[in-house]
Amino acid sequence: MLYTLNSLQDAQQLYRWFEEMRETQPVWRDEQSGCWHVFRYQDVYRVTTEFSTFSSEVRRFPEPHTENGRTRMGRSLIVMDPPQHRKYRDLVAPAFTPRALARLSGRIATITQELLDDVKPKGHMDVATDLAYPLPTIVIAELLGVPTSDRPMFRRWADELLSQQLSDAELLDERTQRARLSTNFQEMLDYFQTMLEERKRHPQADLMSDLLTAEVDGERLSMDDTISFCILLLIAGHITTTNLLTQAIRCFDEHPDVIEELRRQPELMPGAIEEVLRYASPVWRLIRAAKTDVTLHDVTIPAGTLIFAWVASANRDGEQFSQPEEFTIRRSPNKHVAFGHGIHFCVGAPLSRLEASIALPMALEQLQGLRRAPGQPGELFAGRLLFGFKHLPVVFTPREAAPKTPTHHSFQTSERTHANNL
Fold this sequence. Notes:
Layout: H1 8-24, E1 27-29, E2 36-38, H2 41-49, E3 54-55, H3 84-92, H4 98-102, H5 105-119, E4 124-126, H6 127-132, H7 134-144, H8 151-163, H9 168-171, H10 174-201, H11 207-213, E5 215-216, E6 219-220, H12 223-254, H13 256-264, H14 269-279, E7 285-290, E8 294-296, E9 299-301, E10 306-310, H15 311-314, H16 349-366, E11 371-372, E12 379-380, E13 389-391, E14 393-395, H17 411-421
Parallel strand pairs: 2-10
Antiparallel strand pairs: 1-2, 3-7, 4-14, 5-6, 7-10, 8-9, 11-14, 12-13
């Protein structure tokens, strides 16, 4: 089994391993870590949906506590089970409704245009660092109310956290988790505590202020829990979109006819985005814990053990998808599980789809001759969780950017506009 991805060749080996495991050992125990793994679509679907049997309350980060008077991590939405999960999810769900997101379309297009204008005269760019990372980061930062000047800090925190993905065995060792993650988290915790204390004194029209006034069962969120929400939205709110955008460009490059087809028929883009999500799932796997002894395919998984549901394998399962190894933008139906399923379906999925549906057509239209840079393979996120590029060099025909208009779309103006729309 391959635990770390360093190249697309590694990914192809892993996909072949998935196929072998689906056929021979659909429920498998890793002797080294003691964790269980499932690979078939129906099993992944069940494990990620049936919360009464498979719990999301898995320790991925240190338990909340206070140390020397300093705030520590609170509860996280992604590791909650019902009924608590529903109550907390309802706090952030309004920010991601179709009505709320529709009002962001213009701002997403403006940000995308600014990013493209910066690279068009050059004839080359890094898709990851010049477009796929900054676009969702700016969007989620503006929703939260994070100042533009602070975004470089978030890039550093995100990069460090993503480079410190824990092995399966380390997930079971809380002391290892603290040693690996505490410094990074403490910086973020201190930052958001300062920002939220300022919002208490001077509320603004942003998500941080909304969370401070939100209630669950008549009670306000604790400071620790509010901080936890902010960190989750910041990190999870951009990385899936970053991976989706970089993998889309990679998939389109490997299928040049697709680029021309999408330019001729832009209405095909939503289907193309769904196929990228299936074919190159941005998240490799999800984690659950068995609440009771449970039997899958005549194999009994003991209560309390961790189960890895391989989303990327499920999305290549031939029992669910015809010709699963083919990249087909007209695929229908396409019931992939790239964003999970059930109560833990990614709350930010509509925003991710919206950003991709705006940014990708603009990139294909304005970057003529777009293709991967020869001799530069790109750099994947190494690890066991994510499938996206840290760097993806491309080239295209240089083109002068349109003259810049007055910057009435500044961060402050956008923030006020967003407030008025809400």
